[in-house]
Design brief:
The protein has helices at about 1-65, 70-85, 90-105, 110-130. The chain is mainly α. It has one domain. It is rod-shaped. The N and C termini lie far apart (about 60 Å).
């Protein structure tokens, strides 16, 4: 009976290794998708101050029809909004977490808890980006 148990354990171990490899491939593929989204968010985030400036100027022109607008005040308001909606730190951390995930897959031993922790951190950064942004394309 011992040989039967040994061969069953070997088969089970091989199945687990095979399943782990398939999961690894799937997760790495998803990381690539996430990374491309992060780069898109980064591109959009760079345009937010100018977009906001144009919207603000148009609203003010409509509201203050004919009254001159103080450009310095508009620049100040834009700077305040840009600071509140800046997501470059979160983007940098997200990129770092993506790299950590990839590196973790090259480690020996159990990596599940470490991956879980990194995913939680990625989720925090994504939530922060979504709450800071008013642009639908970033959320």
């Amino acid at each position: 009976i011992k040989p039967l148990i040994d061969s069953s354990l070997i088969m089970m171990d091989n199945m687990r290794l095979n399943e782990g490899e398939k999961l690894k491939e799937d997760i790495l593929s998803k990381l690539n998708e996430i990374e491309s989204l992060v780069y898109k968010i980064e591109e959009i985030a760079d345009t937010v101050p100018n977009t906001y400036k144009k919207k603000l100027e148009n609203k003010l022109k409509d509201l203050l029809d004919g009254i001159e607008i103080d450009e310095a005040r508009i620049a100040q308001e834009i700077a305040i909004i840009a600071d509140k909606s800046a997501v470059d730190e979160e983007i940098t951390r997200l990129k770092s977490h993506l790299n950590q995930m990839r590196e973790t897959f090259n480690e020996e031993g159990q990596i599940g808890r470490k991956l879980d922790f990194i995913i939680q951190e990625m989720n925090r950064e994504a939530n922060t980006i979504a709450s800071k942004s008013s642009d639908m394309n970033m959320t």
